[in-house]
Amino acid sequence: MFEQFDLDDKLVAATKSVGYKKPTSIQELVLPEAMAGKDVLASAPTGTGKTAAFLLPCLQHLLDYPRTKPGFPRVLILAPTRELATQIYQHAEQLSEHTNIKSGLITGGVNYGSHKEILTSTTDVLIATPGRLLEYIDNEQFDAREIEILVLDEADRMLDMGFADNINRIAGEARWRKQTLLFSATLAGAGIIRFSKDILNEPVFVESHPSRKEKAKTHQWIHLADSKEHKIQLLLNILQQEDVKRAVVFANKRETVQFLAGKLQSHDLANVWLEGEMPQDKRNAAVARVKNNRVNILVATDVAARGLDIDEITHVINFDMPRKADIYVHRIGRTGRAGKKGTAISLVEAHDMVSLGKIERYIDERLSRRIIEELRPQHKEARVPQKKPKTKVKKNAGLSKKQKAIKKAKKAKKAAKKK
Ligand code: AMP
Questions:
Q1: Which of 48, 81, 83 to mutate to test the pocket of ligand 1 (most atoms within 8 A of CB)?
Q2: Ligand 1 center from residue 396 Cα (angstroms)
Q3: 206, 197 contact by CB (below 8 A)
Q4: Which residues of 117-143 are buried (b: 16+ CB within 10 A; e: fewer)?
Q5: CA 111 from centre of chain
Q6: With a cut of 70, which residues of the chain have pLDDT below it?
Q7: 47 Cα to the center of ligand 1, angstroms
Q8: Judging by beta carbons within 10 Å of its beta carbon (0-12, 13-18, 19+), is residue 57 exposed, middle or buried?
Q9: How far apart (Å, rounded) are the C-alpha atoms in residues 77 and 301?
Q10: Which of 74, 223, 294, 295 lies at a C-alpha separation of 20 to 30 Å from 204?
Q11: Does an H or E element contain 151, and which?
Q12: For 196-222, how does the pLDDT look when each residue is reduced to its tens digit (9 = 90+)?
């Protein structure tokens, strides 16, 4: 229960509306330390709930010490990629839903015009990729001196990507801060520890020990889509993201598989496709091309993918939602094998909401809803009326033994009469 922490009711309510029942292990470990104002050095891979582990203490700090005058952001979160920064931003928006806290996103690949508002109006939490933010600092369009909490997410990845100098410079600019939280998938190797020495002040070390269930969990989410065309745009966008190393795209019909294969090809996304009636040699050749890394996208129906043995699938994408929950589980079981974390993304149209409800009940989890900013759905999520579970009323329930015996006798008499 999130009530166990000293969190504001508005934040607890937000955790409920996003569907968190209880804190994950990293949240249990980080929240008390971070809320006590300490610096934290945490090892937590993606999928463990690390984002909420740093967002909640940051939001609580902003609620505890409300802003007295307009100004620059007070919390700065740095992330390695545009995709991750966008996810953190969406998460921040969800968790601060019941508050007046304002978040902003600054990443590369977006022109200055869309950042202007964030830079000139009052934003409380800024999520940014280091390179772009530094440009604004260098041009004196951004002042980091009002930062009170600095968060470095996926710090190991940022170092791998050569951001060390940029981060050091930003941390230097934000030198008046009170607290720094550093998250890394791993603390192994000297790099991250050495790097953290200058940035953190007497940090508390926190290592997540995700339960087996958490570890084995495939990272799953959905994108709501307005139409088939919208789903195609979402699919193209997802397949072009850099962390998609090997993907299987599922469609419900053979015609859709063929159509998608052509569509992806026309966008330079080399792929192979499988359909149930393909001769075995062609099928083997298609699978071999994936296994040999000649192509990294396979498009298939459930029937065609049956018995398919391909390792290291990083992403399963449901272009069509399966109609049955066990098929969903079967599909997503193809990713995240051999202890590796997999990702399963489903594209959901209004008419899929019933299937989605069934799947969520089956896996006993609400799948998080994600948005790709430039492909934001126009329609709101369709609400499916909840079916009341049918409670079978047992015949003769509530009758005493004597009454039951009388009823039985009457029935026997009636049957005898009929004869
Ligand atoms: P993260 O590691 O922050 O990327 O989170 C992985 C996924 O777990 C996201 O979809 C979160 O919405 C979800 N999540 C985070 N905290 C919890 C929680 N306490 N209970 C259930 N799901 C959570």
A1: 48
A2: 47
A3: no
A4: ebbeeebbbbbbbbebbbbbbeeeebe
A5: 26
A6: 189-190, 209-217, 307, 309, 337-340, 385-402, 417-419
A7: 6
A8: buried
A9: 41
A10: 74
A11: strand 149-152
A12: 998 999 999 998 766 555 555 688 999
Query: Domains in the chain, please, with CATH?
Result: 2-207 (3.40.50.300), 217-375 (3.40.50.300)
Beta carbon of 94 within 6 Å of any ligand 1 atom: no
Ligand 1 centroid to residue 308 C-alpha, Å: 30
> Which is the closest atom of ligand 1 to the Cα of 22?
19
Ligand 1 centroid to 219 CA: how many Å? 9
Model confidence pLDDT, tens digit, residues 233-244: 999 999 999 889
Q: Whose CA is closest to atom 16 on ligand 1?
A: 49
d(CA 21, CA 292): 42
Query: 157 C-alpha to center of ligand 1: Å?
Result: 20
Nearest CA to ligand 1 atom 5: 49
* 47 touches ligand 1 (CB under 6 Å): yes
Question: Would residue 154 be called left, alpha or beta, if left means φ above 0 and alpha means ψ between -120 and 50 degrees?
Answer: left
Q: What is the C-alpha separation between 355 and 76, in angstroms, rounded?
A: 39
> How far from each other are the two terminal CA atoms of the chain, in whole angstroms?
64
Structure-block tokens of residue 251: 């469609």
Distance in Å, CA 52 to ligand 1 centroid: 7
Nearest to 201 by CA among 179, 175, 172, 168: 179
> How many angstroms is it from 119 CA to the middle of ligand 1?
29
Quick check: CB of 45 below 6 Å from ligand 1?
no
Angstrom distance (rounded) from CA 159 to CA 167: 9
Residues 97/18, Cβ–Cβ less than 8 Å: no
